[in-house]
Amino acid sequence: MRALLSEAVRGLRSRGTATAVAVGGLMLAMTVALLVALLALALAGTDPAVAEPERVVLLDFRGNPPGRPSDWFIAAPVVFGPLLKARQAPLDLISRSSSEALDVRMQGVLQRVPVLAADPDLPALLGIRALHGDLKATLGRVDAIAVTPALVRKLWGELPPAQALGRSVESRGKSYLVTAVIPPIDPRSPLGPHDAMASFELVGRELRNNVRDEAALDAIYLASGRVYGRLRPGASADQVGGWMRAAFLASPKYAELPAEWRTGREAAFFRGIPLDRFPFEGPDNAVRWQLLGALGAASVLLLILAAFNTMNLQAAGLLQRQRETALRRALGADNRQLLQLWTAEALLQLLLSAGGALLLAWWLAPLLGGAVGLPPEQPIADPLPWQALAGLAAVVLALLPLLLGLPAWLALRRAPAPALQGRTASEGPWGRRLRQGLLALQLGGALLLLSLTGVMSAQHQYLLEADRGFQTRDRLILSAIVQDDTLPDLGAFVTALKQHPAVRHWGFSNARPMLDTSGPTELHVSADRHKQLLRLTTVTAGYFETYGMKLLAGDPWAGSGEGRLVLDAKAARALGFASPQAAIGATLTGGGDYLQEGSALRRVVAVIGDVKQESAREAAMPQGFLVSDQPQWDLTVYGPDPEALRLALDQLWQAHGPQLLHKVWTADELRSFLYEQEALLTAVLAFVALLAVAVSMLGAYALVADTLRRRRTELVLHRLHGAGPGAIAGQVAAEFAWPLLLAAVAGLPLAAWLGRLYLADFVERVDPVDGLVVPLAVASAATVAVVTLAALRHLRLALALQPIEALD
């Protein structure tokens, strides 16, 4: 075995260029596939602190009001916690949680601290252990709080965490005693990142501060948090929905639901999600896994192309080694020994490729995790998961017979006597056609990936430039990170804002356009009983000018006080108004809870053009804007000079704004955030496509090199009989005619079909010419250009051949 390996190493070193090309191509392809696998494993992982995650369930809820069914919330009314306890459902450690916040002054700046409100049993259920203090006792008190070491550093500097016990955290005139220090919540936990934990009983007291929020804790039709429990032996997650439904129907509040919601139909649906299934649930996760699946398919295709390229090089190499093979046979080597040598050579190449892929993937994994938004604490490749190592080993074992089988069969068919006489045989017409077929597969794969990259790029560019009913260029958005109901006096800031020459328009709102699209939705009813759900945003009158929204009728500045409403055009149409002007002055009723008719009066003062804030994957919802005279927590400013505008905003806030933690974005950035998953997938797919192009270019290069080697004498004879450079070039181009044609026939229809499937997921999409025809045409031209570049060097060598060189 040692002698065999030594011989294999010497052989690979003697063919250094071919070995480097084969190993490099496979290594890059394996790296991409391994990175995708590592990302999938990271996203599918569960918190290792949770014992038997398949037995821990999250209660899920989906509302079903008539004509307005919702998606699964991956949350539920928290009242199901006490309801299931009272009904003695076979669940242990039933616990509620919700994400809240405290306003805490740190280093002179008021900042929002994310707090996880939880029941005392939640730590035991989800494996959360205190670093110092008693976490369960902390969650049983309404005056205590548990903090993370990161929050300790923010509050008290480099204080040892244990010494934080007994200190107090002040918020809104309340004092909370630190009685526990907890580690950061694992990023794979369903709880999400929080800097502190407190009793769930605080939710209806200090953490939430109005009667409506407190009443929501007892509501049976509002997903106000999350409820967890551990299944008892013999119980299954499939039974959880039935227990929830029974508790729902038995609740006295069920009778308070509108009769049309529950008469002869299901008012809601329920289920239990085991925690090992949690990473795959929800609309956001569904889109993420679809995109990751597409990327995985592209990486597998790249790996296949790289394997075909290596097999092609292996076949050419063994044909060139016919004399060496004949000599080994003459010295007594049989087919088994030759196969052992060639297997050792192929296995060494695969192991080198796999080793390089492991190192590259380990180095690149943190960068990839950051690019897709994973927190730095989430492990991706440190340590490398055993599943990834096992998968890589399986790939090596699967590729070994693929890389060796055909080349070895072609080499062993050659008779040794002619090779010993110096007359090496060619691969024959079928061998040549087979290699052309392999090249056609490589070119077809590259063409497919290039085409899909073009389709996705065209759609992404369209989304960034599509008319949404408002302008984003040269707009800055300042958001204060603090509770909504703690608005200080902004009079001095507003006065300075009006007077600054760099600020042409400004307006406040309680939501950032295109980002905060899950805001309040209320039913509005017109005088002639037209009913329509409107997504509501509270704004000041200058908001519409600031975003360049088209005013169709009325005036947002008309009147004062509350109750003024601005509709977009689709909302006006849905409410039965014949024209925008007909809506002006009309009075609507709204303000009802849970999509019911309310009694709050809203007077329409203006109608603007259609506005869309949702992603292009969703239909645009009718928009309503409540005009208020009071500032809100999101400020948008517009000015013709972006640099001067940014400087002015920073200076004005520092001089006249409250001392609050805040962030500033450009409106264009928020628009790009809406489609960052599409942008990331497009970028990664483009990278994979470029690698596929490089692999196919190597395959074309190898084919033309071998063609010229075999047909050297033939080409010279053509020259002697008067063939010009064009005829010689035609002879070389003929080698690629069939591979290119087959690649187009196989790749283009498949790319068009997949491109149409991708675009079909969008409500708004680029037109078919720009979105399909142009990308496919550009990809075809790029593929032809790649083949031309691959053949150019050897074509120059062929044209420079002197007759005496080839006939000697």
Outline the structure in words.
- By secondary structure, this protein is of the alpha+beta class.
- Among the domains are: 53-275, no CATH class; 475-674, no CATH class.
- 51% of the residues lie in helices and 16% in strands.
- The protein is built from 27 helices and 21 strands.
- The strands form 3 sheets. Strands 1, 2, 3, 4, 5, 6, 7, 8, 9 and 10 form a 10-stranded mixed beta sheet that branches. Strands 13, 14, 15, 16, 17, 18 and 19 form a 7-stranded mixed beta sheet that branches. Strands 12-20-11-21 form a 4-stranded antiparallel beta sheet.
- Helix 2 (16-44) packs across helix 13, helix 17 (491-499) packs antiparallel against helix 21 (642-656) and helix 23 (676-710) packs parallel to helix 26.
- The longest helix has 38 residues, at 283-320.
- The radius of gyration is 34 Å and the shape is globular.
- The two termini are 43 Å apart.
Total count of helical runs of at least 4 residues: 27
How far do the termini sit from each other?
Answer: 43 Å
Estimated structural class: alpha+beta
Strand runs, count: 21
CA-based gyration radius: 34 Å
**Mean pLDDT across residues:** 83
Taken as a percent bin, the fraction of beta residues is: 15-25%
Helix percentage: 40-55%
Summarize the biggest pleated sheet.
Answer: 10 strands, mixed
List low-pLDDT spans.
419-430
Which term fits the overall shape? globular
